[in-house]
UniProtKB/TrEMBL annotation:
Lineage per the UniProt record: Bacteria, Bacillati, Actinomycetota, Actinomycetes, Motilibacterales
Assigned GO CC terms: plasma membrane
Organism whose genome encodes this protein: Vallicoccus soli
Keyword Membrane part of the UniProt annotation: no
Keywords of the record: ATP-binding, Nucleotide-binding, Transport
Name of this protein: ABC transporter ATP-binding protein
Ranges for domain ABC transporter: 43-289
């Protein structure tokens, strides 16, 4: 069943409606390990590899994404998260592997068709898109496409009913995302947070079942943070599945039902946010290094003890001279 992606006049700021409870309940008995099977997966990925010369950027053996849940994809810089998003949504091609969305293979399907089949990703406002108005960006979203080469096609006039339906949908979404006052403004004039809202609103133009968000909090000032979080949670409350890449661990903890951790192209851990983030192996090996997550008290104690022991050894070596 297609998700109702225009419904809901405003984002539920609490975002803890019945779908949140259902997602948590559905994932309760899923084992906390890479590749764990889910009770109702909307996306199933098998053996996807992408190599750039000698570098294997993505090497995902198996991933299942639970329908109707918010799943975070985290990992250190260069882990392969963005490349993986690009592969799944048809913006790049893997060297190997297959994946099914809602039971249908998507391998080899171009990006705009992937979007029309119900899996859509946000993409950042490029320079060219910044020179279009907000409403023009929304219309481009209806084609499920991105990219400068498509601007001309988009600006071609549409016919009567089709254009009316698209404009109506765009205006509904702009109202919902409180961007209606910006309708005729150039997208480039929006603040960081408003851009993120536009990217999300534009993705919803195709009425997707699954929305993939690439760093939805990047560049968003604190005043808009809660509103953005509310909108993401609202996607789940309307029946959509969300998969997002994010470095902001507070956001991951706040909104995700499940977390998948990638490092060096592979899936190295899975589980609910608290359990994944408390996993010393994850913090130490994949997050601690670049301070994405706060250290646990045990980890802090261990690092302090290591440092003290090191100083002690140095003092003794000095004294022994
Ligand atoms: N087009 C490309 N050509 C060559 N190497 C690439 C290309 N795209 C990505 N890579 C390399 O693949 C690896 C994975 O990159 P990717 O951007 O997917 O990681 P990421 O997890 O999204 O990182 P970040 O969190 O910093 O965005 C990196 O080593 C990157 O340098």
């Amino acid at each position: 069943m297609a998700a109702d992606s225009t419904g809901g006049a405003t984002a539920t700021t609490a975002g803890t409606g019945p779908r949140k409870a259902a997602a948590v309940a559905a994932l309760r008995d899923v084992p906390h390990r890479p590749g764990a099977p889910k009770p109702d997966p909307i996306l199933v990925v098998d053996g996807v590899q992408r190599r750039f010369g000698g570098l294997t950027a993505v090497d995902v053996e198996h991933i299942e994404v639970q329908r109707g849940a918010i799943t975070a994809l985290i990992g250190p810089n260069g882990a392969g998260k963005t490349t993986f998003f690009n592969l799944l949504t048809g913006f790049d091609k893997p060297d190997e592997g297959r994946w099914e969305f809602d039971g249908q293979s998507l391998a080899g399907v171009p990006a705009y068709k992937v979007a029309r089949r119900g899996m859509v990703r946000t993409f950042q406002l490029t320079k060219a898109l910044s020179r279009l108005t907000v409403i023009e960006n929304m219309r481009l979203g209806a084609t499920g496409q991105r990219g400068e080469s498509l601007l001309r096609a988009m600006l071609r006039p549409l016919w009567g009913d089709q254009e009316r339906a698209i404009t109506e949908r765009a205006d509904d979404l702009l109202r919902r995302f409180k961007l209606d006052a910006k309708r005729e403004d150039f997208a480039g004039s929006l603040s960081g947070g408003q851009r993120k809202l536009l990217e999300m609103a534009r993705a919803l133009m195709v009425g997707p079942q699954m929305v993939m968000l690439d760093e939805p909090m990047a560049g968003v000032n604190p005043a808009l943070t809660q509103s953005l979080l509310g909108h993401v949670k609202d996607l789940r409350e309307q029946g959509m599945t969300v998969l997002f890449v994010e470095h902001d661990m507070d956001m991951v903890r706040d909104i995700s039902d499940w977390v998948i951790v990638m490092a060096q192209g592979r899936v190295v851990a899975e589980g609910p946010p608290d359990s994944v983030m408390a996993d010393p192996a994850v913090i130490d090996a994949y997050l601690g290094g670049h301070h994405d997550a706060p250290l646990s008290i045990e980890e802090e104690d261990r690092q302090l003890a290591d440092a003290e022991a090191q100083v002690e050894r140095e003092i003794q070596a000095e004294e022994g001279k």
